[in-house]
Amino acid sequence: MKQTFSVLNVKCGGCANTLKKSLLEEFGEVEVNLEVMPREITLDIDETQIESLRSKLKGLGYPLASDELNTLQKITTTAKSFVSCAIGKINN
Question: CATH number of the domain that 38 lies in?
Fold first, then answer.
């Protein structure tokens, strides 16, 4: 079923490219809405895959807005998002 999730730390097209490429194999096509804050991703996902999606996003530096993160996790995901963004720009 198609679902939309609010995602933190997504800033630009580089971030969107990283999300699309990194999630494609496991979750299929991903739409990234850069017109709203926080940014949103929409994908066809089964309820049993949401925890895996949450983990994958956090690993890329783009946690779900609904995730409760401590200060260290916020700093870590922000730093990871800068790297993921740069990779997305290079691989575009």
Answer: 3.30.70.100
